[in-house]
């Protein structure tokens, strides 16, 4: 409320001259573009008598002219969610104060509490207070403002039944496709704004085969650490699969590291956090090996997400949820902006099983039968491992097997512990890219045209397709 001066003259408080000088200085500085902020406070909002309360105290108030007993006015900008306090000789508010032990002068205090404060602050728990000469500006904390923006955007797009998505460490986009299929099964479509991956070949396969990618999708070839803030457009759903080999026991052994944080690729977690601050997603979906769940880097990541006002839902998913032949247990978390609620339970729908044995997934043809051969070097390695007391064993399966172990990124190298199909006369063969996709229930179209090595790299570092589908349905419930 702003009060005009009384008719017939002016009156002065004890520090009126100083106030006028401060206000004059500020106006001059403003005209020259030299406004000086003396202090910024990121302050918690409290409550009193069902209204929001903002408390400002400290010596910088005096230096800004807001000394004990000085008059000021308060103006409220509901549209911009901002409160402005200005020194005013005829203001209707006065700075209060209290005397601290051992001090003669009272420390100035400004106490704001009213329905109008509540209207502006809303449910936000923190505000930003900027103190200048003669003026104090109270605005919503930037993180609270971002929470409001992402939840409003999500609900607006949900009402249109069309979400926006983006994926970090995308590969060829198998995880993204599965989540989109899950959303679609729940009655929602999605628009992919961007994919990020360090490997151009993977992105080119996605561009050629992935139905979630169109000509408007930005395909960014980069490590996530080097991304700039304006590279990524804000999205409703952010999907990411951070490097997993540094968390897995076999990967640590190969790299000769004790913990994941010793490896250089752990910096991807920093890029991930930067992207979260930049993109401000409403929902985050993350996948990794089970060992990542309690690693130091993931504990830090989850703590920061909680601080940014996300709720975290964690899952360990296996072949039963994925409906697959391949056994691939994975750790997933879904982080949802804390204002979004799921009226249903956290139970996940299981993906419908399509194949029940290895034999149902096999390809036919002469080119397939020509793949059978001996693997003498693996036989020798197994014998050596047994003699040395190591646990590595070959994994040989036949058409009647109803499950197989994990087929990884470097499957084309014919490593000792990954599954092979038994033939006759002691021969065996690696599984084809199409067969490996069938074991995971990955649509074969997504690896169409890929040669053996590239196709296995893409499917081998991806997911059980049913996992992403189940989580797509799960996140569609939030509103």
Automatic annotation (TrEMBL):
InterPro entries according to UniProt: C5-MTase (IPR050750), C5_MeTfrase (IPR001525), SAM-dependent_MTases_sf (IPR029063)
Alphabetical list of Gene3D superfamilies matching this protein: Vaccinia Virus protein VP39 (3.40.50.150)
Keyword Endoplasmic reticulum: no
GO biological process assignments: DNA restriction-modification system; methylation
Enzyme class: transferase
Catalysed reaction, written as an equation: a 2'-deoxycytidine in DNA + S-adenosyl-L-methionine = a 5-methyl-2'-deoxycytidine in DNA + S-adenosyl-L-homocysteine + H(+)
UniProt feature coiled coil, ranges: none
Keywords: Methyltransferase, Restriction system, S-adenosyl-L-methionine, Transferase
Family annotation (Pfam families): DNA_methylase
Keyword presence, Protein transport: no
GO molecular function: DNA (cytosine-5-)-methyltransferase activity
EC number: 2.1.1.37
PANTHER family linked to this entry: TRNA (CYTOSINE(38)-C(5))-METHYLTRANSFERASE
Protein name as catalogued: DNA (cytosine-5-)-methyltransferase
């Amino acid at each position: 409320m702003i009060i005009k001066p009384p008719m017939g003259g002016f009156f002065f408080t004890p520090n009126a001259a100083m106030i006028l000088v401060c206000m004059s200085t500020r106006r001059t500085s403003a005209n020259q573009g030299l406004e000086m902020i003396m202090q910024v406070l990121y302050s918690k909002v409290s409550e009193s008598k069902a209204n929001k309360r903002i408390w400002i105290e400290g010596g910088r108030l005096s230096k800004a002219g807001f000394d004990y007993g000085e008059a000021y006015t308060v103006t409220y900008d509901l549209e911009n969610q901002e409160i402005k306090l200005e020194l005013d000789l005829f203001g209707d508010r006065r700075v209060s104060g209290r005397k601290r032990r051992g001090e003669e002068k009272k420390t100035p205090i400004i106490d704001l509490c009213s329905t109008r404060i509540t209207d502006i602050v809303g449910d936000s728990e923190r505000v930003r207070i900027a103190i200048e000469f003669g003026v104090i500006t109270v605005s919503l904390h930037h993180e609270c403002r971002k929470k409001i923006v992402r939840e409003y955007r999500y609900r607006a797009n949900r009402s249109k039944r069309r979400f926006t998505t983006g994926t970090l460490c995308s590969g060829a986009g198998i995880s993204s496709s599965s989540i989109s299929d899950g959303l679609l099964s729940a009655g929602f479509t999605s628009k992919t704004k961007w994919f990020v991956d360090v490997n151009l070949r993977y992105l080119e396969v996605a561009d050629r085969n992935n139905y979630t990618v169109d000509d408007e999708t930005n395909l960014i070839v980069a490590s996530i650490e080097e991304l700039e803030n304006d590279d990524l457009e804000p999205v409703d759903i952010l999907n990411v699969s951070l490097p997993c080999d540094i968390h897995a026991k076999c990967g640590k052994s190969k790299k000769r590291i004790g913990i994941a944080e010793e490896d250089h690729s752990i910096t991807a977690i920093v890029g991930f956090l930067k992207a979260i601050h930049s993109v401000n997603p409403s929902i985050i979906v993350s996948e990794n090996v089970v060992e990542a769940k309690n690693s130091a880097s993931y504990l830090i990541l989850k703590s920061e997400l909680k601080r940014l006002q996300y709720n975290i839902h964690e899952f360990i998913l296996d072949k039963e949820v994925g409906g697959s032949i391949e056994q691939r247990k994975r750790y997933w978390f879904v982080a949802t902006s804390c204002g979004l609620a799921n009226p249903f339970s956290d139970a996940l729908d299981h993906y419908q099983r399509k194949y029940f044995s290895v034999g149902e997934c096999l390809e036919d043809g002469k080119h397939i039968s020509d793949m059978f051969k001996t693997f003498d070097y693996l036989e020798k390695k197994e014998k050596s491992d047994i003699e040395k007391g190591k646990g590595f064993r070959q994994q040989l399966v036949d058409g009647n097997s109803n499950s197989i172990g994990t087929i990884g990124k470097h499957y084309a190298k014919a490593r000792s512990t990954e599954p092979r199909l038994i033939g006759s006369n002691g021969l065996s063969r690696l599984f084809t890219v199409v067969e490996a996709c069938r074991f995971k229930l990955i649509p074969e179209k997504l690896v169409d045209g890929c040669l053996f090595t590239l196709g296995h790299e893409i499917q081998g570092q991806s997911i059980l397709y049913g996992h992403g589908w189940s989580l797509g349905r799960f996140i569609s419930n939030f509103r």
